[in-house]
Amino acid sequence: MGKNWPTYTKEQIVLAVLGGQISVAETARQHRVNESLIHTWKAQFLEAGTAHLAGDRQGDRHTELEYENERLKVLVGEKELALQIAKKVRGL
Q1: Tell me: the pLDDT tens digits for 6-61?
Q2: Residues 77, 37: one domain?
Q3: 38-44: long-range contacts at Cβ-Cβ below 8 A with a sequence spacing of 24 or more?
């Protein structure tokens, strides 16, 4: 029978690497994953943490832009309606 390897989450693996408990190379060998995958997980982990600590300003900016986009769509719709009404009035 095969060995029963303990399972670890990506977060546990990244935290072990970040904590200096084990090298990326050793972690990759132990968990049978590519080193580049661990580096990717580490970068994603750090990026998410940085965004969280910064108050996710990019997410807030995205929400602001969505709101502004909707406001401008309504404004363009109103102007289009006013233009159509003006064209009809002139035609009468």
Answers
A1: 677 888 889 999 999 889 999 999 888 899 999 999 998 888 887 777 775 666 77
A2: no
A3: 38/13, 38/14, 41/10, 41/13, 41/14, 42/14, 42/17, 42/18
